[in-house]
Amino acid sequence: MKLSIIGSGYVGLVTGTCFAEVGHHVTCIDNNKEKIKQLREGHIPIYEPGLEDLIKSNVANGRLKFTDSIKEGVDDSEVVFIAVPTPPQPDGSVDLTYIEGVAREIAGVLTGYRIIVDKSTVPVKTGEKVAETIARYNKAKADFDVVSNPEFLREGCAVADLMNPDRVVIGVKGERPVATMKKIYEPFHAPIYITDINSAELIKHAANSFLALKISYINAVAAICEASGANVDEVADGMGADKRIGRAFLNAGLGYGGSCFPKDIKAFINISEQLGSPFNLLKEVEHINEQQIDRFMKKIRDKLWVLKEKNIGVLGLAFKGDTDDCRSSVAIALCKRLVAEGAKVRAYDPQGMEKAKNEISGIEICSSAEDVFNGAEAIVVATEWKEFRALPWGSLKDKMVTPLVFDGRNLLDVKTLRGFGYTYFGVGR
Ligand code: UDX
Ligand code: UDX
Q1: Ligand 1, pocket-test mutation among 5, 35, 82, 84, most atoms within 8 A of CB
Q2: CATH topology of domain 286-425
Q3: Which CATH number fits domain 204-281: 1.10.10.10, 3.40.630.30, 1.10.1040.10, 1.10.287.110?
Q4: What is the mean pLDDT of residues 351-378?
Q5: What CATH class has 2-195?
């Protein structure tokens, strides 16, 4: 099938590439001309495992191309996906400027029947507004359907998530777009849930909020573990073995970050209030998440006392492992707190160093993980990169002033670290 995707970021680019991989002809569109130029020259603007190879092979076989022209994309496809940002506003509500702008641009070039699919995470009832907008601004009075098809990919394993989805959610009004949408997803062999548009939009916010709730739940349990001498890893394993609960998203740590959970939870709280059904439970989810950094800072302060002029090595800047994305990263927030207290922060991230520079200044970026240990009075693990676990911790200890480790992601093996002579602090263990 011929598809186009407006917005070639973490969501749009990976989705478009995977559609091409299963045989569709895909045009990825972006209004950032420089990004399109780079993509055409074979430079991939984001780090996502497996993505570069897929882009290169699908460009070579002619199924994937890039343009900055919405008209070109709309003219040349049966289905147009929207994957532009939906950032938060100061009051927690969602800024729908980009969605509205794209809807108007589509209206400006639409001449015949197209299915317009919203992939961006949007408040319930946005589909109705998109349909109204396109109808209002389309002079040709062309026929179209609006569909909601939320994306559930996780950065860092986005290609695998897209190629093997747990489910595909398709929100429609009427039958007309159903067969085409099913055909697009047929090659993925996933269960397909056909719903109304409002339900599809809600599924995304409800799912992300539930996952965030699991993380805050285990972080609250971790605090009780610390107070009682229990071990949160063992508690999570024991809880998670119950199929009704599941072990996933029960990893205690510094809390959730990234460009989705923090904004989506805020948005869902705001939406629930607008609809007159305040979802106050989610306020506590947020509150617990915010407390995680405070509690961790206290742990560091309790041990190191005054942080001014202290050399602190930070492993990880990205919001999670296997990505270069540093937007709303808890690791960055933690570095800012350390800097605010006068500490000298020296940090390293395997992929996020370039993007971290947009988010923070006043820290020294090291050229390797090993370098972070030089002269450090403490090491802080802030992102769950697996390769940090594999570092030669035994020998690296000698580079430090004092062998203290604050593991904000419960990434390291406690016994091994203590065996090497480190004083180790994790979260709830
Ligand atoms: C975005 C949203 O943040 C998220 O809510 C939604 O679920 C999916 O889209 P992401 O792909 O991570 O997520 O955003 P980003 O990596 O910033 O990519 C968005 C792209 O859209 C950028 O490349 C930007 O240049 C482009 N864009 C933005 C347009 O092409 N047109 C616009 O009007 C605005
Ligand atoms: C999330 C959703 O998982 C995905 O379905 C949706 O499409 C977009 O938002 P993403 O933000 O890419 O994906 O990453 P995710 O793996 O969910 O991690 C989010 C944050 O939660 C990270 O900061 C991570 O460190 C943290 N996390 C995750 C925990 O603290 N504990 C866990 O057990 C899992």
Answers
A1: 84
A2: Rossmann fold (3.40.50)
A3: 1.10.1040.10
A4: 97
A5: alpha beta
CA atoms within 13 A on the CB side of 153: 27
Instruction: Give the model's pLDDT for residue 170.
Output: 98
Report the C-alpha gap between 123 and 170 in whole angstroms: 16
Residue 373 is predicted with a pLDDT of 98
Q: Which two tokens stand for residue 298?
A: 């206290």
Query: Best substitution site from 11, 51, 70, 151 to test ligand 1's pocket, by max atoms within 8 Å of Cβ?
Result: 11
In this prediction, residue 232 has a pLDDT band, given cuts at 50, 70 and 90, of: very high
Q: What is the pLDDT of residues 22-64, one digit of tens each?
A: 999 999 999 999 999 999 999 999 999 999 999 999 999 999 9
- CA of 363 from ligand 2 middle (Å) equals 26
The candidate with the shortest Cα–Cα distance to 181, out of 404, 19, 328, 7, is 19
Instruction: Give the SS3 label for residue 363.
Output: coil
For the chain, the average pLDDT equals 97
Give the number of other Cβ atoms within 10 Å of residue 163's Cβ.
17
Are 204-281 and 286-425 equal in CATH topology?
no
Nearest in space to 116 (alpha carbons), one of 75, 163, 148, 138: 148
How far, in Å, from the CA of 16 to the mean position of ligand 1? 13
**Mind listing the pLDDT tens digit for each residue in 85-118?**
999 999 999 999 999 999 999 999 999 999 999 9
Ligand 2 center–CA 264 separation, angstroms: 12
Amino acid at 121: T
- What percent of the chain is helix, strand and coil (3-state, nearest 5)? 45, 15, 40
Q: Which ligand is nearest to the CA of 10?
A: 1
Query: Minimum-distance ligand to the CA of 330?
Result: 2
Q: DSSP readout, 385-423?
A: -HHHHTS-HHHHGGGSSS-EEEETT--S-HHHHHHTT-E
**Every domain of the chain and the residues it spans:** 2-195, 204-281, 286-425
